[in-house]
């Protein structure tokens, strides 16, 4: 590791001020950033830790019924405290990484990084959630812009994520055993206005919605509604863990399992 400055503000405003330095980088749980720095793939001059900001931690229910999760809330806390409100999301959080990752990693850090195989982007997109920052509110459909790319601007901080709570939901994850990331992950969320289906781990472009499945499941929320659908292997990730065709196949399989579990 190389030498760098370290700051740990205790308020959002103080963190915003610290991040005005072009050499500064926000630090959530550090599960991705610190290994990246060790490999010299990133070299910020200052790390601004968000772990000391109490107002960015916690899970609560808003007046409109939405589940509000602070950007600095760990996966383990989400798994525990969201279970009685949004069990599909809690189940997803409970299977992220291992206990060490779940107790250090944060929802805000995961979304800001937007790893193409991360679980939280799938939940946010399937839920039609809203990402609240120190500057604005961003709809899930406008937030993810491709692999490791989001709508966040330089120094912008995710302070909260607001999830509309679905009538039924489930997340199915085919785990890549070495990394514990999703080789493919599919989340299904059923709302009064229709069904949303999001996929992670499969596409070279990152998380995406499977709109054909959404239409079919909105008409008939049953795994059988997917039987005539196919997923193209074009643009899917192909590596030593699975071919593009294999990942495309898994999407349909996992979506069916998610519907059965949710229903």
TrEMBL record:
Keywords: FAD, Flavoprotein, Oxidoreductase
PANTHER family: XANTHINE DEHYDROGENASE SUBUNIT C-RELATED (PTHR42659)
SUPFAM superfamilies, sorted: CO dehydrogenase flavoprotein C-terminal domain-like, FAD-binding/transporter-associated domain-like
Classification via InterPro entries: CO_DH_flav_C (IPR005107), CO_DH_flav_C_dom_sf (IPR036683), Diverse_Substr_Oxidored (IPR051312), FAD-bd_PCMH (IPR016166), FAD-bd_PCMH-like_sf (IPR036318), FAD-bd_PCMH_sub1 (IPR016167), FAD-bd_PCMH_sub2 (IPR016169), Mopterin_DH_FAD-bd (IPR002346)
The protein's name: Carbon monoxide dehydrogenase
One Pfam family it belongs to: FAD_binding_5
Annotated GO MF terms: FAD binding; oxidoreductase activity
Organism listed in the record: Brevirhabdus pacifica
Coiled-coil spans in chain: none
């Amino acid at each position: 590791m190389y030498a760098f400055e370290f700051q740990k503000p205790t308020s959002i405003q103080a963190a915003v001020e610290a991040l005005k330095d072009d050499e500064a980088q926000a630090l959530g749980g550090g599960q991705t950033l610190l290994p990246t720095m060790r490999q010299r793939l990133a070299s910020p001059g200052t790390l601004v830790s968000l772990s000391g900001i109490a107002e960015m931690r916690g899970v609560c229910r808003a007046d409109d019924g939405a589940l509000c999760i602070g950007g600095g809330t760990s996966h383990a806390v989400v798994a525990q405290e969201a279970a009685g409100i949004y069990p599909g999301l809690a189940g997803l959080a409970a299977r992220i990484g291992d206990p060490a990752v779940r107790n250090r990693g944060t929802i805000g850090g995961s979304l800001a990084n937007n790893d193409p195989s991360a679980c939280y982007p799938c939940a946010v997109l399937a839920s039609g959630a809203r990402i609240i920052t120190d500057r604005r509110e961003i709809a899930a459909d406008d937030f993810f812009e491709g692999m490791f790319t989001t709508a966040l601007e330089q120094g912008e901080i995710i302070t909260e994520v607001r999830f509309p709570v679905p009538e039924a939901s489930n997340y199915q994850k085919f785990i890549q055993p070495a990394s514990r990331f999703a080789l493919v992950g599919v989340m299904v969320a059923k709302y009064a206005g229709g069904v949303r289906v999001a996929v992670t781990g499969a596409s070279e472009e990152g998380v995406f919605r499977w709109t054909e499945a959404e239409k079919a499941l909105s008409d008939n929320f049953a795994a059988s509604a997917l039987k005539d659908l196919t997923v193209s292997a074009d643009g899917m990730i192909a590596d030593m863990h699975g071919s593009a065709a294999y990942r495309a196949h898994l999407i349909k399989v996992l979506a069916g399992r998610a519907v059965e579990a949710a229903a």
